[in-house]
Every structure is written in C-alpha cells, then in structure tokens.
Amino acid sequence: MATESRSFLARISPTQWVALLLTVLAVLFVFDNRGKVTIEFLLISVQSPMWLILLVMFILGWITGVLMMRKRRH
Asked: Which candidate, 31, 36, 59, 34, places its Cα nearest to that of 47?
C-alpha cells in the first residue's frame, strides 16, 4: 500500500503542487474573510462578504488586462 501511495505522489508535477497550494490558500482566504463589508460607489451602496468583493474586483481587473492585450496585438 505504501508503494502505491508513493507512486501517486511521485506522479504529481510541481505545477500541480503549486495549483494545490494556491487552492488551499484561496479557501483559507475565503473562510478568513466571511465578514460583510459595505462598498459605496457613486450613489450605489452594496453590502457583501469581503472575499466576494475582492473576487469581483479580481475578475474585472483580469478582463481589463485581457482586453488591453487584445488591443495591443492588433
């Protein structure tokens, strides 16, 4: 049984280990930031968990980066 366990762990690439570590850190971040915050922008006020606000901002930044890269390529 120990041989099967070693061979399975040996088959995991360094990239997969990094992905696993980042996933664990992301899950810990979400559990640590479940408190609600209020965001005010112009006349809009939104109350949401901190992790969700940060996720939305990350996605908006990512989309902006993708759109800027497309514009540079053309």
From this structure: 36
With beta carbons less than 8 A apart as the criterion, state whether 35 and 48 touch: no
33 vs 52: CA distance, rounded Å: 9
The span from the CA of 20 to the CA of 54, in Å, is 21
**pTM of structure:** 0.57
Sign of CA dihedral 40, 43, 48, 54: negative
Cβ neighbour number for residue 5 with a 10 Å cutoff: 9
- The domain limits of the chain are 1-32, 36-74
pLDDT digits (tens, 9 = 90+) for 26-43: 888 888 888 899 989 899
